[in-house]
Every structure is written in C-alpha cells, then in structure tokens.
Amino acid sequence: MSKSLGLIGWRGMVGQVLVDRMKAEGDFKKFKSHFFSTSQAGESAPELADHKTLLDAYDKKALSDMDIIISCQGGDYTKEVYGALRESGWNGYWIDAASALRMDESSCLVLDPVNRSVIDKALNDGVKTFVGANCTVSLLLMGLSGLFNEGLVNWISTMSYQAISGSGARAVEEYAKQIKEVGVQINEKSAMEIINHNNFSMTEDVIGAKLMAGLIPWIDSEVEGGQTREEWKASVEASKILGHQIDIDGTCVRVGSLRSHAQALTLKLNKSVELSTIENLIGEAHQWVELVENSPEQTKAKLNPHYTSGTLNVAVGRVRMLKIGNENLLNIFTLGDQLLWGAAEPLRRMLSII
Ligand code: HSE
After folding, report:
1. N or C: which end of the chain has fewer CB within 10 A?
2. Closest Cα to atom 2, ligand 1: which residue?
3. Residue 137 has pLDDT above 90, yes or no
4. Over 90: is that where the pLDDT of 326 sits?
C-alpha cells in the first residue's frame, strides 16, 4: 500500500520547486499525498492531491496519520511542531528543508549522490528524521565529491557569491524594485555620470542594504569570532554529511544573481596529484557534475548563473594549481542552482529512498 505523504510549505520558493520536480519525476504516483496549510485549512488542495482539501498544519492528529512528512515551511514551524509531534509518539519519517534540526543528534543530513552510505546506515539504524543541508554546503560537496571520495581534501577556503533567492521571496521582489530604481537613476547617463553617481537611492526594507550595483559580504546572524552563521554552517554541516571532520571557512557574500550560488575555492590537497587526474575525478564523480574547461570561452558561457539556473547541473571550472607556495593548493570555481541541488532535490530524492 502506498505511504501517506504530508506536504507542508509547498507554496514557498523551495516548496514550489519541490512540487514541480516531484511532478516531473512522477513521484506523486508513489504516495497518497496530503497538502497541509498553516492558514487555509479546509480550502481546496491542489489538483494532484489525493486528499482533496487542505489539512491544518498545526493539527497533530492529522499530522500523525502521515507515514512521511516533508516540510519546506521554515525553522519556526519545525520548532513549534516537530518536538510535540515526536513526544506524542509519532514515529514517521520527517524530511525538512529548514536548518532547525540539522545538528540534532537524531537527524541525518541528506545529499545522496555524496553520502548515500551515510543515509543507508541511518535508515538501518532506525533514524526517522532527514534534513537537507545548507545550499552552499550541498552545492560545494556536489561539485567536489570526486575529490572527497579519494580522501584528497585537507581543508577548503570558500568565498561565496550567493543568489538573492537565498534570502527569500520578499527579498527577490525587493531586489527587482532596486533594479528598476537604479535603472531610472542611470538611464541615458554617460559612463562618467554613472560611475560618479555615488548616492543611489533604493528600497532596502527587506534586504537591509543596497544590493543592486553592489554586494553584501554578510549573510545571516553573527556567531563567535566574527564569523556569520552562513560561514559557520560550512564546516559543521559538510562534516555531518560526509561522516568525518572537514575544515571549511571563508566569506559568504550576497550578490545580484537570482537562483545560482557560486563559490571561489582554495583547496589544500593531502598530496600532490596531476591536474588531469584531479579533473577526471571531479568530472566523473556523478551525472550532475559538469567539468568546465579552463578557457575564457567556456568559463564565460558555463561558469555563469545564467547557465546553471533552473538546471540540475553543478558546474566546476577554473581548475588549476595556485602559483603561491609549494603546498598543493588548488583553485576551483563552482556553481549550481540553490533551489534545486541546494534545497529541493536532495529532499525529493530522500522520499524515493524511503
Ligand atoms: N542560507 C542560504 C542563503 C539559503 O542565504 O543563500 C539557501 O538555503
């Protein structure tokens, strides 16, 4: 008999991408699907739902009838509902996009092309809570899994270029407003007038800074030692995904791309390896990684958010040894869609694995 699946937060950006991917892959045929809502219980559910009305996302009885719950509703919802549901004795599978349960001892982080053995062990051990990792972390590991598989990575310094969609739908809409507002101020001006214009006015209520024609080297709240939470996640989440400690740190930067997060990496390798071997390991790791030739043409065409956004491709390029020191320092640039491999796709695949 097919399992009952409850979907929560399916109207948000990650939720919509998840539902679209599930439709495209025919996943809804595998489950009896129930759509939940935090505000519109009783109204009509989407066409593809097996249960024709929306259920109340705060109704513990309705939730506990589910074999599997998948939530893209966000951390506040998870914190409010998850603990109480578990305490009530519910022992179903909880799959979550939010960060709230990521470091919980009873959860497993999911990114199956990279950590299928960790996931299988967790399932065998009776783990019932599976969480998608931070988008930059997942995309980094998807791009470099060939090097991790060979145990070649000693540490990584990453400088990210993160899309505005990582800040949520309202930020995307405000960014569109900033584009228009700046557009008006530079319209039909000369180059000198544009670059001498140093006081652009734009709406910054949601984003909290001027992003259009600018950037923001601060994402999320502050943790210890001047690090941001986004930067802190890299090492702890990557280590949990891989099942062993890996040191990663750097600066996370918000830029004006829309869906794809990019990262400029310095990798310290554990030993000296031929560049061609490194390229083969990266490019042949799995079907979603695309090794991009280190040429101006290929780099401009493919190491670009316009190329990866809306696709499952994780592009990896600018692969070369750094010309500083003699310490096996590798330079790489990688990017991918933060809503697909960065968020929805690992969760969708976890449903099928269950
Ligand atoms: N923390 C990410 C960002 C969101 O701010 O870009 C994607 O999970």
Report:
1. N
2. 166
3. yes
4. no
